[in-house]
Amino acid sequence: MGTFGIFSKEKKETLDKGLEKTKESVFKKLSRVVVGKSKVDDEVLDKLEEVLISSDVGVNTTLKIIERIEERVSHSKYLGTDELNNILKEEIALLLEENNAEEIDLSFSSNNGPYVIMVVGVNGVGKTTTIGKLAYQFKNSGKKVYLGAADTFRAAAVDQLTIWADRVGVPIVKQKMGSDPASVAYDALSSAKVNNADIVIIDTAGRLHNKVNLMNELGKIKKVMQKVIPDAPHEILLILDGSTGQNAFEQVKQFTNVTDVTALALTKLDGTAKGGVAIGISDQFKIPVKYIGIGEGLEDLQIFNKKEFVDSLFSK
After folding, report:
1. What confidence score (pLDDT) does residue 52 get?
2. Tens of pLDDT, residues 118-143
3. At what angle do helices 306-313 and 84-99 cross, to 10 degrees?
4. Considering the chain, what is the average pLDDT of its residues?
5. Antiparallel, parallel or unpaired: β 199-203 and 172-173
6. What count of other Cβ atoms lies within 10 Å of the Cβ of residue 213?
7. pTM confidence score
């Protein structure tokens, strides 16, 4: 099955460890909610609302969860606070399933050549590291991978991606700093197609201060890539730093305004208590969270398995 295959015991342990800070924070807050209370009443729900918002679940998603729990309480006036964890777990799991129900497809089939993933995201979110880890795991899954260094506005971006390409052992197509990003993408796809690659991952510049320029640049890259592979890119993956909490929500809004984001990756969840952001982003945007980063290791980038995520978040 390869690295992205079955959710193994090792992956489960890694996920549990990666969510430790979030779990500790949430359970501490939940324990304070129920102190001195025997049943779920309005006061408990008000405090629960504060817990969810402070855990970066987001206001809209929090209100949705609270409304659902209120509905359950109305049918069972004496719902005990000892049941609150299970109720909350059930409602979050249902919410994730409803809003992000499609299965993650890793077949990467394209009729016209390699499957093309265009990666977007602001600087500092872990974009280059995520690309490197993706390349590693795809390669371990038996895929032939090419990288394209189209973030030509920062010398460090090209250098970092080159280091990752060397580390993973995959080809990289690059040009000198300041080159036309679309030209790099064109060369990367052309080379990958000639060499029968399965996947091409194209890095792009992470600038949001001028949205018009970014939109034009991404539009040009897409248009030029389609000269080589007509249906490219097959995926536009937005990388977000999970530790930034609500700022991650804002970045999704900004990037979806300038390009057609089709999938999300949340990084650095292991270093933060803001893992609740995965719940809110999954609910608020009709874009699947596809990957989560929960550690420094090459295999610590995981497919976002909704059921396992919720199970891990609520495991004691």
Report:
1. 93
2. 999 998 899 999 999 999 999 999 99
3. 160
4. 88
5. unpaired
6. 12
7. 0.91
